């Protein structure tokens, strides 16, 4: 919602002199909105369970990390190059708020990703132990009786 609000604020600006900062902020806010919205729909409808080949925790981590980084850069650039209009100031404020929320979400995504890695390594070690136990030769008397 913050990315959407920042995008709406930046779209209300009618004229700009150096427009590069404005265009960059517009691109970042729109991209974050689209990608995060698509992931939100995938997760809320549980469509991500149909594609188990993708590490969704890592996908969410990469999205939130990149969104945090680019929103911060775009907000700093827009804050440095703005013309002190209400829409630009509002866009900068919502950009920094979006940066903070994406950073918080990135921290949660890191924890989920680490938890997922621990569970995968635990499952892998249990598989290796079971596999090595199944290869152990156990002397069975009924087989020895048949050989004799």
Give the H and E element order.
HHHHH
Shape: rod-shaped
Q: How far is the N terminus from the C terminus?
A: 79 Å
The parts where pLDDT drops under 50 for at least 5 residues are none
Sheet bearing the most strands, described?
A: none
What's the number of extended β-strand segments? 0
Fraction of residues in β-strands: under 5%
Mean pLDDT: 83
- Class derived from helix and strand content: mainly alpha
Number of helices: 5
Indicate how many domains the architecture comprises: 1
Helix content: over 70%
Rg (C-alpha, Å):
26 Å
Transmembrane segments: 22-49, 61-83, 89-110
Keywords: Membrane, Transmembrane, Transmembrane helix
Protein name: CKLF4 protein
Domain MARVEL: 1-114
